[in-house]
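Below is our example:
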Amino acid sequence: MAQAEHWNRRTAAKAAGAAIVGAVGVSLASGQSRGAEAAATPKGNVKQSLCRWCYNGIPLDKLAAAAKGMGYQSIELLTPAEVPVVQAAGLTCAMLSGADAINRGFNRKEHHDQLEKDLSEHIEFAAANGLPNVICFSGNRNGMSEEEGLENCTAGLKRVVGLAEKKNVTICMELLNSRVDHGDYMCDRTPWGVELAKQVGSPRFKLLYDIYHMQIMEGDVIRTIRDNKDYIGHYHTGGNPGRHEIDETQELNYPAIVQAIVDTGYDGYVGQEFIPARDPLTSLAEGFKVCDV
């Protein structure tokens, strides 16, 4: 497999951070002011989060303060060491990093021992800190059949889901596209992920439905959300094409999508996971308004 396919969020964070550093010359204080104005009277029908790696060029404490002023309630995909920083700002972490290697997941039995250890530690930390979710991944196919991958993921996840049930923490496997960003990733379609959730058979294992990724793979986003709401534990945004702002520059109708999510009775978080192409704090404030349905 080409080295470029061994992608994880740490790699992307470096690229995103480099792009953002130049844009952060804008005053963080004025960014907080813009955010507070944007969220002066939020509707509050959906709890909003943002993904740390997309804004890696902004110090976490500064990002947390700005996000709080905009109306965000969470910064996610944090390590346990980072969580206290956002808690100090009055935020939570809606999705804790777990076995955070996209191409090294539960579809390989040889990974199960290490994944069980890592994920169990993160479940324990999440429970102790009142965090709702930890993330996991399927891994890449590397020639493996869908059926074998399903069987292996089920077996591996059953080793940790009992602890998740005991601790009231939900394990979420992310759906990612294998066409543009994550070539060969196995959990790349909603039906496969839903079947996995059925086989694991626990309310503490669900899917992280990434709207950007599933637009690329499947489209028909709103119908998919409605039909599979019982198997979805978290959502991510992102504009398509390009994974940039969720505004008029891209093809997805986010107000309609988020309203559909709200209409299912979902009471979790929607995480903004777009890489800003403009001033990051302005884009974050605008993204909050777009999803505040």
Remarks:
- Residues 1-8, 18-23, 29-39 have pLDDT under 50 and may be disordered.
- The longest helix spans residues 112-128.
